[in-house]
Specification:
The chain has 453 residues and is α/β, with parallel strands linked by helices. The protein has 2 domains: 250 residues, Aldehyde Dehydrogenase, Chain A, domain 1 (3-Layer(aba) Sandwich), CATH 3.40.605; 188 residues, Aldehyde Dehydrogenase, Chain A, domain 2 (3-Layer(aba) Sandwich). The strands form 5 sheets. Strands 12-13-14-11-10-16-17 form a 7-stranded mixed sheet, with helices on both faces. Strands 7-6-5-8-9-19 form a 6-stranded mixed sheet, with helices on both faces. Belongs to the aldehyde dehydrogenase family. One of its GO terms (molecular function) is succinate-semialdehyde dehydrogenase (NAD+) activity. Keywords: NADP, Oxidoreductase.
Length: 453
């Protein structure tokens, strides 16, 4: 049995029986049948059903938000915002999906020639717990709009969210089995990838999981999209708006208890502003209210699981042994649940654990750079390249810096965020492929060239 527990209290919420391998393959067959019919449904009808889903999410935002908070600990207002953001994503693809997949005329000397987009088929989405609605719908919505079918292997601690999403699709009027949630183990997912009826895989998760899935997909000659870890740099130049910058920096790190792949993690500050940034960041971080994620005054809730909290604390303690200086936090809070103190580490250097690894929790690592050039070098001195943030009042200068950062996304004078219209994904060991925007809806579309001689 799979068990869902409230990370703020330890309360057992629900238990879920696993799908056997024969059950998994039976569901795959049902989704394949649903896909074959769905691929013939006009875009207008698909958009109509998506709009019904968007309205359902808005109507049930508080209900689904409470479920998210209960299962993984996110502050309730953040959970509600996540559900509403999913509705905004649906608005985008329901309104733009048909145009984004329209045939593209190509002048090539023939009477007529063009490229058209056709759906792959049934896809497997292996998704994490940190944004249990957004991560799933960010993938499922454009691919359903594009005519594909979707199987979901969600993280076991948010199976309640997985089933709620499955039920929402049905309630909105989507065909049965077009979107199904699977309660399966990684070994079963690997077996599923061997089945010729499955046409592609996406994974959002750890580098280790990404390597395993990409290896299996490569062996089976199936397309895969990976959105993996990040150790995102937050680069502060000497002409930054320090007040706005520091307010944003703490939120960027402690939002969702720091459990965000695109959260700023390495704060690289040029020497003239370093001390002032450190003190302002400390004061704001220490003012954050940590507690019951359902309480309206709470700014940060618990981490999602005990093992994640213990691993984070181990990384912090290792970084301190390596020479980092503890400014504030750095401990597991003495209270029920999986609460970790918002933490600031200073005098961080590139060989330390908090610089080289992804710390998936509310820990800011502060790095001093002598100037802009060194800040860029330090920012790029990472195996990851998911997102980045640059702070400067000189926007032309900031854009030039952004162009030199080895990252899939760079935000100027803002924390890194995801947006339905903007391509989302990384470079280096942060993965490959894109979600959202025009790129996201086309990833699992077969491009067919048609020529009339």
């Amino acid at each position: 049995m799979y068990h869902s527990q409230n990370p703020a209290t330890g309360e057992l919420l629900a238990s879920y029986p696993p799908h056997s391998t024969p059950q998994m393959l039976e569901i795959l067959g049902a989704t394949q049948e649903a896909f074959e019919a769905w691929a013939q449904v006009p875009f207008a009808k698909r958009a109509e059903l998506l709009k019904a889903l968007a309205q359902l999410l808005r109507d049930r935002a508080n209900q689904y938000g409470a479920l998210i908070t209960q299962e993984m600990g996110k502050v309730f207002k953040e959970s509600v915002a996540e559900v509403n953001k999913c509705a905004t994503l649906i608005d985008f693809y329901a309104g733009q999906g048909e145009a984004l997949l329209a045939p593209e005329p190509i002048k090539a000397g023939f009477a007529k020639s063009y490229a058209r987009y056709e759906p792959f088929g049934v896809l497997l989405a292996i998704m994490p717990w940190n944004f249990p609605f957004w991560q799933v719908l960010r993938f499922a919505v454009p691919n359903l709009m594009g005519g594909n079918g979707v199987l979901l292997k969600h993280a076991p601690n948010v199976f309640g969210c997985a089933l709620a999403i499955e039920e929402a699709f049905l309630y909105a009027g989507f065909p049965p089995n077009l979107f199904r949630a699977l309660m399966i183990e990684p070994e079963q997912a690997s077996l599923l990838m061997e089945d010729p009826r499955l046409k592609g895989v996406t994974l959002t998760g750890s580098e280790r999981a990404g390597v395993a899935v990409a290896s299996k997909a490569g062996k089976e000659l199936k397309k895969v999209i990976l959105e993996l870890g990040g150790s995102d740099p937050f680069v502060v130049l000497e002409d930054a708006d320090l007040e706005k910058c520091c307010q944003t920096s703490v939120f960027a790190r402690c939002f969702n208890a720091g459990q965000v792949c695109i959260a700023s993690k390495r704060f690289i500050v040029v020497e003239p502003l370093y001390d002032r940034f450190l003190e302002a960041h400390r004061q704001i971080m220490e003012s954050w209210v940590v507690g019951d994620p359902m309480a309206p005054q709470t700014q940060m809730g618990p981490m999602a699981r005990a093992d994640l909290m213990i691993e984070l604390n181990s990384q912090v303690q290792q970084s301190l042994k390596e020479g980092a200086r503890l400014v504030t936090g750095g401990k597991i809070l003495d209270r029920p649940g999986h609460f970790y103190a918002p933490t600031l580490l200073a005098e961080v250097t590139p060989e330390m654990t908090c610089f080289t690894k992804e710390l998936f929790g509310p820990v800011s690592s502060l790095v001093k750079a002598k100037d802009e050039e060194e800040a860029i070098r330090l920012a790029n001195l990472s195996p990851y390249g998911l997102g980045a943030s640059v702070w400067s009042r000189d926007l032309a200068r900031a854009e030039k810096v952004a162009h030199r950062l080895e990252s899939g996304m760079v935000f100027i004078n803002s924390m890194t965020v995801s947006h339905p219209a903007l391509p989302f994904g990384g470079v280096k060991r942060s993965g490959f492929g894109r979600e959202c925007g025009s790129q996201g809806i086309r990833e699992f579309q077969a491009v067919k060239t048609v020529v009339v001689a």
